[in-house]
Amino acid sequence: MLEDTLNKVTAFASQAHAGQQRKFAPEPYIVHPIRVMELCRQYSNDISVLSAALLHDLLEDTPVTRDEMDVFLRTVMSEKDAAQTVQMVVELTDVFIKKNYPEWNRRKRRKMEAERLSKISAGGQTVKYADILDNSLDIVNVENDFAKKYLEECLEILHAMQKGSRPLYERALETVKDCMQKVKI
């Protein structure tokens, strides 16, 4: 049942991200959410966490709405699991974005985002740890000042989030620090 559900959620996410490419890696976008889910799976078998990992960028990077996602999820899992998955995806969707806060600089927006993420669910934080880990491994291959800035932001976010899977947190923290050394921060 778990595998069947995850296959359906993966297909839904793949369709939503169709045609999108990763910014810092030459691959289809869907590869990232799948890796995030696989990282989470090493620490949790909670269908809501694993599904949220697959869908974590859906609301900010695709035209799919919260309601459309909710309707789909209720066809493949229990109402409770669907509600928890939607909640985590909403929690993981950036709020303090330039479009909504044009008067704030990136530093202030990211600081506010870290503070917001410190209050989300343990499951949401677990997915964010995996997201940071995977993104850090991609961005370290980009030789520019943004990689340094991004990794510093990741460190700030990780320090703010303490409720998720502790072993995954430690792994993400170690990965970010290793990547920072590679880009000479």
Q: Bin the strand percentage.
A: under 5%
Class per helix and strand makeup: mainly alpha
The CATH topology: Hypothetical protein af1432
Main beta sheet strand tally, sense and closure: none
**Looking at the structure, what is the overall shape?**
globular
Name given to the CATH architecture? Orthogonal Bundle
**SSE pattern, N- to C-terminal:** HHHHHHHHHH
CATH superfamily: Hypothetical protein af1432
The overall pLDDT, averaged over residues, is 95
Verbal overview:
With 185 residues, this protein is mostly helical. The chain is 69% helix and 0% strand. It contains ten helices and no strands. The protein has helices spanning 2-16, 31-41, 47-55, 58-61, 66-76, 79-92, 106-117, 122-139, 145-160, 166-182. Helix 3 packs across helix 6, helix 7 (106-117) packs parallel to helix 9 and helix 8 (122-139) packs antiparallel against helix 9.
